[in-house]
Amino acid sequence: MGEKVMVDFPGFITRDSISRHLLVGDDSRVLLSNTIIAEMYRRLCSTLGYENAARIIYDSAKKGSYEVQKRLLVTYKVTLKNEADLRNRIARLPLYMQTYGHGRGKTVKQGADYVFEVKYSSVGECLRNQGMEKPTCHFLAGFFAGMAEAYAEQIKPGLSYSCVETRCVAVGDPCCEFSLFASFAR
Q1: 59: domain CATH number?
Q2: CA-to-CA distance for 153 and 185, rounded, in angstroms?
Q3: Which of 8, 83, 116, 159 has the most other CB atoms within 10 Å of its CB?
């Protein structure tokens, strides 16, 4: 087998507001490709340093994911009924991110804390062999934390989530792995 090459997704996907069917848009939309995102990572790390870039990317992805998901929950009138419903939604988060072309994910542990495994992380794959010494998928970690908080707010207001990438393909691991932790805001 040859070397794996990350391919940018060649279209714009959205969901029809009435039928809820996935739609592929025309070429008049702007494509924010995986290659562009990886280049932003590289430049932010080289300009601001790894720690500052990681914090900015994580915080931005968490806040943005939270806000977008809150709007979608209201728009589609999604309500969670109980803690089992919340646990089920959180366990499905890796499936949601793979819908948007950021890798292939699954939940490998769930309970009080969750562990998500992501193969073919778009950013991790683009930054593989670039000399990265630490995990790079801060966007996905922020996505998982923000989405979990948006769902949790319906059942347990004040519950906060944080997510840490513990393994990453960019540093030579076979896949990326994320640990999602809950805590109550003070």
Answers
A1: 3.30.1380.20
A2: 12
A3: 116
